[in-house]
Protein backbone atom coordinates (compact mmCIF):
# COMPACT_ATOMS: atom_id res chain seq x y z
CA UNK A 1 0.00 0.00 0.00
CA UNK A 2 1.38 3.39 -1.02
CA UNK A 3 0.94 6.13 1.63
CA UNK A 4 -1.44 8.98 0.73
CA UNK A 5 1.29 11.63 0.96
CA UNK A 6 3.42 9.74 -1.55
CA UNK A 7 0.52 9.29 -3.96
CA UNK A 8 -0.18 13.02 -3.77
CA UNK A 9 3.43 13.84 -4.71
CA UNK A 10 3.82 11.23 -7.45
CA UNK A 11 0.38 11.47 -8.95
CA UNK A 12 -0.26 7.77 -8.33
CA UNK A 13 2.18 6.50 -10.93
CA UNK A 14 5.74 6.70 -9.72
CA UNK A 15 7.36 5.17 -12.81
CA UNK A 16 6.06 7.71 -15.32
CA UNK A 17 8.90 9.75 -16.84
CA UNK A 18 8.41 13.48 -17.13
CA UNK A 19 10.14 16.46 -18.72
CA UNK A 20 12.45 18.52 -16.52
CA UNK A 21 14.83 21.41 -16.96
CA UNK A 22 18.48 20.54 -16.22
CA UNK A 23 20.76 23.07 -14.51
CA UNK A 24 22.60 23.41 -17.85
CA UNK A 25 19.36 24.60 -19.48
CA UNK A 26 18.62 21.47 -21.50
CA UNK A 27 15.19 19.88 -21.39
CA UNK A 28 15.54 16.27 -20.23
CA UNK A 29 13.30 13.34 -19.40
CA UNK A 30 13.54 11.98 -15.85
CA UNK A 31 12.04 8.95 -14.15
CA UNK A 32 12.78 5.69 -12.38
CA UNK A 33 14.41 2.99 -14.51
CA UNK A 34 12.83 -0.15 -12.99
CA UNK A 35 9.94 -1.39 -10.85
CA UNK A 36 12.19 -2.56 -8.01
CA UNK A 37 15.52 -1.25 -6.75
CA UNK A 38 15.18 1.56 -9.26
CA UNK A 39 17.64 4.32 -9.97
CA UNK A 40 16.67 7.79 -11.10
CA UNK A 41 17.37 8.12 -14.82
CA UNK A 42 17.84 11.47 -16.55
CA UNK A 43 18.09 11.25 -20.34
CA UNK A 44 18.38 13.47 -23.41
CA UNK A 45 15.16 13.77 -25.40
CA UNK A 46 16.62 12.87 -28.80
CA UNK A 47 16.56 9.14 -29.64
CA UNK A 48 19.81 7.69 -30.98
CA UNK A 49 20.53 5.11 -33.65
CA UNK A 50 22.82 2.11 -33.21
CA UNK A 51 25.97 4.20 -33.77
CA UNK A 52 24.81 6.76 -31.22
CA UNK A 53 24.31 4.00 -28.69
CA UNK A 54 27.82 2.67 -29.34
CA UNK A 55 29.25 6.16 -28.80
CA UNK A 56 27.25 6.56 -25.57
CA UNK A 57 28.43 3.20 -24.19
CA UNK A 58 32.04 4.03 -25.13
CA UNK A 59 31.66 7.23 -23.08
CA UNK A 60 30.39 5.21 -20.11
CA UNK A 61 26.81 6.49 -20.41
CA UNK A 62 23.77 4.27 -19.86
CA UNK A 63 21.04 3.85 -22.47
CA UNK A 64 17.31 3.38 -21.91
CA UNK A 65 14.27 2.20 -23.86
CA UNK A 66 11.38 4.68 -23.88
CA UNK A 67 8.45 2.33 -23.26
CA UNK A 68 4.76 3.15 -23.08
CA UNK A 69 1.85 4.63 -24.95
CA UNK A 70 0.77 8.19 -25.85
CA UNK A 71 -0.45 8.86 -22.29
CA UNK A 72 2.43 7.49 -20.25
CA UNK A 73 6.13 6.81 -20.87
CA UNK A 74 8.61 4.86 -18.75
CA UNK A 75 12.38 4.48 -18.96
CA UNK A 76 13.77 0.94 -18.99
CA UNK A 77 17.51 0.38 -18.54
CA UNK A 78 19.08 -1.40 -21.54
CA UNK A 79 21.11 -4.42 -20.47
CA UNK A 80 23.56 -6.11 -22.85
CA UNK A 81 20.90 -8.57 -24.07
CA UNK A 82 18.60 -5.62 -24.89
CA UNK A 83 21.36 -3.93 -26.84
CA UNK A 84 22.08 -7.06 -28.91
CA UNK A 85 18.40 -7.72 -29.66
CA UNK A 86 16.30 -6.04 -32.33
CA UNK A 87 15.07 -2.62 -31.19
CA UNK A 88 11.43 -2.36 -30.19
CA UNK A 89 11.41 1.15 -28.67
CA UNK A 90 13.22 4.48 -29.10
CA UNK A 91 16.59 4.45 -27.32
CA UNK A 92 17.59 7.44 -25.19
CA UNK A 93 21.00 8.22 -23.65
CA UNK A 94 21.81 9.31 -20.10
CA UNK A 95 22.14 13.10 -20.02
CA UNK A 96 25.55 14.68 -19.56
CA UNK A 97 25.58 18.47 -19.40
CA UNK A 98 27.14 20.01 -22.51
CA UNK A 99 27.87 16.64 -24.14
CA UNK A 100 25.05 15.56 -26.47
CA UNK A 101 25.69 12.43 -28.50
CA UNK A 102 26.90 13.52 -31.94
CA UNK A 103 25.07 12.39 -35.04
CA UNK A 104 26.53 9.51 -37.01
CA UNK A 105 29.21 10.76 -39.40
CA UNK A 106 27.88 11.41 -42.89
CA UNK A 107 28.81 8.94 -45.58
CA UNK A 108 31.14 10.25 -48.24
CA UNK A 109 29.44 10.99 -51.55
CA UNK A 110 31.56 10.50 -54.70
CA UNK A 111 32.46 13.66 -56.60
CA UNK A 112 30.38 13.74 -59.79
CA UNK A 113 31.66 17.13 -60.96
CA UNK A 114 33.69 17.40 -64.20
CA UNK A 115 36.96 15.59 -63.61
CA UNK A 116 35.45 13.58 -60.74
CA UNK A 117 34.54 9.91 -60.81
CA UNK A 118 31.00 9.15 -61.94
CA UNK A 119 31.39 5.39 -62.21
CA UNK A 120 32.47 2.52 -59.94
CA UNK A 121 36.19 3.09 -60.35
CA UNK A 122 38.24 3.28 -57.18
CA UNK A 123 39.05 6.97 -56.49
CA UNK A 124 42.66 6.31 -55.44
TrEMBL record:
What residue spans carry the region label Disordered? 103-124
What is this protein's name?
Uncharacterized protein
Species this protein is from? Sphaerisporangium krabiense
Amino acid sequence: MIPAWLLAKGGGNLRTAGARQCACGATVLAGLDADRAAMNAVVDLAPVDEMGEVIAIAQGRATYDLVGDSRRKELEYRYEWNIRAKRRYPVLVAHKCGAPIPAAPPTEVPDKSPGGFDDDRCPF
